[in-house]
Amino acid sequence: MVEVRLGVAILAAGQSRRFGETDKLTARLHGRMLGEHVARTLRGRDFSMAAVICASDAHPCAPVWRECGFDVAANPDAEQGMGTSVAMAARLAMEADCDRLLIALADMPMVPEAFYSSLIRSCDGSGGIFTSAIGGTRMPPAVFGCDHFPALAKLHGDKGARELLALGETCPCPPEWLVDVDTPETLAALESGVRSPS
Fold this sequence. Notes:
alpha/beta, 7-stranded mixed β-sheet, two-stranded antiparallel ribbon, 7 helices, globular
């Protein structure tokens, strides 16, 4: 059986502009900083490359990210938009000779480990793209085969990987798993909800 080298990048370099003055990833959700949750969900897997792409390697969540087995990679171009972080993730995956790359967002704390596993399994035997979706809207987390790394590495600005995601096969899931925390109101709603992040 051929070993598949899987990399993972958690994107955490956003500017939190809609959240106000506070770095949203340091806001508390169920007793932990918001930025900790996805790393804790994904820790313990056998990744060939695991990195959190952030604006500064001195981020308050960095100790937990490292404890969970992730390298902390500072994106010097973070202010230029998410595309630069996706590109950095792809370059790290290429340097690590990965066959697949899982891209997750640090502000999506509700995605359960089982769904990440389902996305990863969907890629077995395929070099394609498998993406989360709510209805017809495709979004991270997503897994990309290595054939797509060069295109990802060319992304820039605030564009993200939307055009590539449009080419992917979808893995539908409940919309509440894909809530991204952009505002204090969204965080408060999750904090008061009955369901905790995994």
